[in-house]
Amino acid sequence: GENVEQHPSTLSVQEGDSAVIKCTYSDSASNYFPWYKQELGKRPQLIIDIRSNVGEKKDQRIAVTLNKTAKHFSLHITETQPEDSAVYFCAASSEGNTPLVFGKGTRLSVIA
Amino acid sequence: DGGITQSPKYLFRKEGQNVTLSCEQNLNHDAMYWYRQDPGQGLRLIYYSQIVNDFQKGDIAEGYSVSREKKESFPLTVTSAQKNPTAFYLCASSQGGQYGYTFGSGTRLTVV
């Protein structure tokens, strides 16, 4: 089955700097890659996703890149703000209705 | 609550007791999922259902049971066979495997 590895497990950045979180996956059939943000004590919320027919997707300060050959995808947050502090999860799934497999999460701290 | 409601928010279980966690959605989603979240472990899949009256085991189904008698409802029972049930339980729904999940606000279960 699919296995998703996520790095780093914790990340601290200064406000205004960029943050990058990387994930690798094992199943070459995977073709849907969402990212979720979970603030302390709250539910995970979808922030951006990418499908395998594109290599990059941007939404304001957030971007996701995908390298299908290397089987890895990354989340990029630019001009970080204190409200970006949260746990971020990557996930992957293949075609059909197979459930998402999640990485173990990255705790991002943005220091003002 | 974003269309998917979990109750109760906090639940305490005595040794040897079965407890049931409720999950209801009004998003008309076919697929529903139960994940368990432990610190540093990410989200691990317990059970999922793609259609009414059908469900499949996830990676950590032992000690849990589910039912899917209505499209809107997917309750999870934590049985006495689950030896380490203390965790944060998240229910989610989606239009299918290639779409993002909407999560409920979670139930925190503690064994006393």
Describe this structure in words.
The complex is a heterodimer of chains A (112) and B (112). Chain A is mostly beta strands. In chain A, β9 and β10 (101-102) form a beta hairpin. Chain A is built from no helices and 11 strands. Chain A is 0% helix and 58% strand. In chain A, the strands form 2 sheets. In chain A, strands 2, 4, 5, 9, 10 and 11 form a 6-stranded mixed sheet that branches. Chain A has a 5-stranded antiparallel sheet with strand order 1-3-8-7-6, with no helix packed on it. Chain B has 112 residues and is mainly beta. Helix content of chain B is 0%, strand content 52%. The model of chain B has no long low-confidence stretch (mean pLDDT 93). Classes of the chains: A mainly beta (112), B mainly beta (112).
Strand content of chain A: over 45%
Count of β-strands of chain A: 11
Overall SS class of chain B: mainly beta
Rounded mean pLDDT of chain B is 93
Task: List descriptors.
heterodimer; A: 6-stranded mixed sheet; 5-stranded antiparallel sheet; B: mainly beta; 7-stranded mixed sheet
Structure summarized in a few sentences:
Chain A is mainly β. Chain A has strands at 4-7, 10-14, 19-25, 30-38, 45-51, 56-59, 62-67, 72-77, 86-94, 101-102, 106-111.
